[in-house]
Design a protein that fits this description.
- The protein has 266 residues and is an alpha/beta fold.
- The protein has helices at residues 3-8, 23-32, 48-60, 74-82, 96-106, 128-138, 148-152, 154-158, 170-176, 186-201, 216-224, 235-251; strands at residues 13-18, 36-40, 64-68, 87-90, 140-145, 165-168, 207-211, 229-234.
- It is built from twelve helices and eight strands.
- The chain has an eight-stranded parallel β-barrel, surrounded by six helices.
- The protein is globular.
């Protein structure tokens, strides 16, 4: 069953975020059994060429490759879709107009406004008709809810045809309220309550949440709360927390993380 079908039936799917541009990262994570993997082109140094290589290895491993684009830009979205992404996660979708723009950037006319190219996705020109049919039926648009304006406009955003789901970005949502990373603030909790209420009124759209800390228990809580499209941490944090935990265990707590140049103190 495709990810598109699993989203439409609101089956729980779990994916992760890729910020390192080497194809081995995608191959390793896809081989672990994630349902989908998102190549992050908003908060990473990943280039379009590296993105295409990651899409290729993720797809060959039987996992669904998505791309979180840097912004809601038709050219960026067109290019990652032409590279073979099965869909996009679009940041800062704060209004119905933003959602319409995202969908139009993925879909060909008459459903959308995407320009036609003959790249990897279209078999380098050999399979355009098949891709055009696939694009209309299977391409995925996930909107990212990460600003208080998006929370206020959530019902309008989710009413846009072609939106397959949404995912909450908790860090940026808290930042839009003036308190980045502070998730116990009343304003953040109120925003989350509103998201839960609106999502419950629109049962055809699966709700998603990016659980950034690699904490399986937190994933379980989000599933119990009704979230079905779960992003689980990201490559660098999975690597770092595993190393820190194991080194601390092996050294009796004597090993401490080193300070990066111009970075935060441990």
């Amino acid at each position: 069953m495709s990810l598109k079908d699993r989203l439409s039936t609101k089956e729980v799917t779990i994916g992760s975020w890729i910020t390192l541009g080497h194809p081995a990262i995608g191959e390793i994570l896809a081989g672990c059994g994630f349902d989908w993997l998102t190549i992050d082109m908003e908060h990473s140094a990943i280039t379009l060429a590296e993105c295409q290589d990651l899409v290729r290895v993720i797809e060959l491993a039987g996992c669904c490759p998505l791309v979180r684009v840097g912004e809601n830009d038709p050219n960026l979205i067109k290019r990652v879709m032409d590279a073979g992404a099965h869909g996009v996660i679009v940041p800062q979708v704060n209004s119905r107009e933003d959602a319409l723009r995202a969908v139009a950037s993925v879909k060909y006319p008459p459903e959308g406004a995407r320009g036609v190219g003959l790249a990897r996705a279209q078999g380098y020109g050999l399979h355009f008709d098949a891709y055009r049919r696939w694009n209309g039926e299977e391409s995925i648009v996930i909107v990212q809810i990460e600003h208080i304006q998006a929370v206020e406009n959530l019902a309008d955003i989710l009413s846009v045809p072609g939106v397959d789901g949404f995912i909450v970005g908790p860090y940026d949502l808290s930042a839009s309220l003036g308190h980045p990373g502070e998730f116990s603030r009343p304003g953040f909790l109120k925003a989350m309550e509103r998201i839960h209420r609106v999502a419950g009124d629109m049962p055809h759209i699966p709700a998603g949440f990016h659980v950034v800390p690699p904490d399986p228990g937190e994933v379980g809580k989000k599933i119990q709360e009704g979230y079905r499209f779960i992003g689980y941490s990201l490559d660098t944090l999975l690597l770092a927390t595993t190393c820190l935990r194991d080194l601390a265990d092996m050294s009796g707590g004597r090993v401490q993380p080193r300070r990066f140049a111009k970075g935060p103190s441990p």
